[in-house]
Amino acid sequence: MTNQNQQADDSTSSSATSGERPILEVNDLRTYFFTDDGVLPSVDGVTFKIEKGKTLGLVGESGSGKSVTSLSILGLIPQPPGKIVGGEVLFEGRDLTKFSEDELRGIRGNDISMIFQEPMTSLNPVYTIGNQIIEAIQLHQPLNFKEARELAIYMLDRVGIPAPSQRIDEFPHQMSGGMKQRAMIAMSLVCKPKLLIADEPTTALDVTIQAQILDLLTELQEEMGMSILFITHDLGVVAEICDDVAVMYAGRIAEYGNAEEIYNNPSHPYTIGLFSSLPQVETTRLGQREDRLYVIPGMVPRPQDFPAGCRFRSRCEFATDECMKLPPLRLHDDGHMSACWYADEVRDGTKEKTGPRPGGAKADPNDFLKSGDANI
């Protein structure tokens, strides 16, 4: 186990209020893709946990590895080219990476459900909404077709779809984007899962429907007592519904801890950059902003282009030669963690800016092969 994850294991989540074991523990998870361009470490040593009844927000730019992390939890990585090469995913103490495909089918949709990013592509266009929900019910519950249909209608009504007894026989193309998203939520929650993975479930929706969906998820969470892994790039959504936050960058966790602590005292330059990029409401007397919106320089590198050491260093305003070494995820006095050599100074505002440092040596994604750590 890496130093990063030993530090993470020694810490306690600020959301935990008892000695009860977390519903999900992801420890040093590594998911690589083996392609003609080489080995791509899309998820490379990710560690976090979710307490029972709590919501963890997994945040980061597109390409940071959030969706690959969620698919790895459920064993949905396409093989080939993908493979979980290390780490563990403990659900109620059981390591899902050791489960067979048949055993995972018993978990998916029953104990752990997932709302996928695009309901338009996740719903089968040739089957009615009802048939797809009823199939999920009958896979996991001993109900006949009539009983399953009644449960499906109840769930469609529960998620706010009008005239559910009629809508149940409609095809996905007959529904709006918001209705399809609600149908996906109904399908995901109909078996009352213990853990819900929501992969940017409101990205394609307008703000009014987005607010309704978030309120719905919060209400159903309280009613069912389930935990949620909420994947998003919207920091406003995270502030509204999440208890804890894991900020992800280039396949690794940059900052992790209680949402309030991270929002009030961010200590990783990437997290600070994300917050600085948010639009501000302050205006001049003429109704115009005085400053331009902050933009983090550069882009998230492709997995084959990850730099050596700290993966954010080529875009970081505080990077030095020390950042050529990979920083561990270290615990702060306030209970949250960050992977930055200068986290305390950055948070206190005493670290001198050096400007973005483009270029530099790249990490060798085949190093794990040389070390013999991966089980291929």
TrEMBL record:
<dbReference type="InterPro" id="IPR013563">
    <property type="entry name" value="Oligopep_ABC_C"/>
</dbReference>
<keyword id="KW-1003">Cell membrane</keyword>
<dbReference type="Pfam" id="PF08352">
    <property type="entry name" value="oligo_HPY"/>
</dbReference>
<keyword id="KW-0472">Membrane</keyword>
<keyword id="KW-0813">Transport</keyword>
<dbReference type="GO" id="GO:0005886">
    <property type="term" value="C:plasma membrane"/>
</dbReference>
<feature type="compositionally biased region" description="Low complexity">
    <location>
        <begin position="1"/>
        <end position="18"/>
    </location>
</feature>
<dbReference type="InterPro" id="IPR003593">
    <property type="entry name" value="AAA+_ATPase"/>
</dbReference>
<dbReference type="Pfam" id="PF00005">
    <property type="entry name" value="ABC_tran"/>
</dbReference>
<feature type="region of interest" description="Disordered">
    <location>
        <begin position="1"/>
        <end position="21"/>
    </location>
</feature>
<dbReference type="GO" id="GO:0005524">
    <property type="term" value="F:ATP binding"/>
</dbReference>
<keyword id="KW-0067">ATP-binding</keyword>
<comment type="similarity">
    <text>Belongs to the ABC transporter superfamily.</text>
</comment>
<feature type="region of interest" description="Disordered">
    <location>
        <begin position="349"/>
        <end position="376"/>
    </location>
</feature>
<dbReference type="GO" id="GO:0015833">
    <property type="term" value="P:peptide transport"/>
</dbReference>
<keyword id="KW-0547">Nucleotide-binding</keyword>
<dbReference type="GO" id="GO:0016887">
    <property type="term" value="F:ATP hydrolysis activity"/>
</dbReference>
<dbReference type="InterPro" id="IPR027417">
    <property type="entry name" value="P-loop_NTPase"/>
</dbReference>
<dbReference type="InterPro" id="IPR003439">
    <property type="entry name" value="ABC_transporter-like_ATP-bd"/>
</dbReference>
<protein>
    <submittedName>
        <fullName>Dipeptide ABC transporter ATP-binding protein DppD</fullName>
    </submittedName>
</protein>
<dbReference type="InterPro" id="IPR050388">
    <property type="entry name" value="ABC_Ni/Peptide_Import"/>
</dbReference>
<dbReference type="InterPro" id="IPR017871">
    <property type="entry name" value="ABC_transporter-like_CS"/>
</dbReference>
